[in-house]
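Kindly inspect what follows.
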Amino acid sequence: MYYMFMDTMQIPIPPASMRTKINNKNRTVDLLGKGEINILKQAGLTEVSFKFMLPNSDYPFNQSMLMSFQKASYYVDQLEALKASGQPFQFIVVRMKEDGTMLSMTNMKASLEDYSIDEDAEEGYDMYADVTLKKYVDWGAKRIEVKTDSEGNTKGTVTQDRSTAGHDIPSQVTVSRGQTLQQIVKRQLGNTSNLFAIASLNKIAVPAALAVGQVVKLGTQAASKVVLH
């Protein structure tokens, strides 16, 4: 069982397959007298591609928790908005067994690189979206203050390191008295766009009362089960 989210949009019918490509940045050069060598570098940005149905009919296997009534045009508009925003978003895949045990989760900040909308008479009224996502890595500029002392020695000091995104997100949060899942997600992520993805990950109903001291997983190293008392 899979639950997939692109920002606030839950993929209504998860695809049968998904391809994750780890791009290569190694460089091959020819050295005089040595022949061809390979200069090893860190891997490039990960790409994820998959194709999913945009339903224009009601299906019992539609997994959307809030938008199961929406038709293909809604998802086309959502994809257009993600592309037009020019901003990265969270791409989340929660993999679970039929008994509710979580197998793993992908939680990656990504950009929508390319997508196409396919229509085929043999598919009836439904449409399909073929998308390619690329991992987004936060970056920031450092400001260095350079000072020269009386002896002519120069020293540089980093005075600011500002990321292009917000604060670092912890992998888990411990619940305090009176906190709700909505409050935790809002505080840590800045909005509740990923509320239902995190609820699915922790198998918490929305809304629900959280126990003091309960651990809510937010990151990719999440445990397979959270027990409510």
Observations:
- DSSP finds three helices and 13 strands in the chain.
- Helices lie at 72-85, 181-189, 195-202.
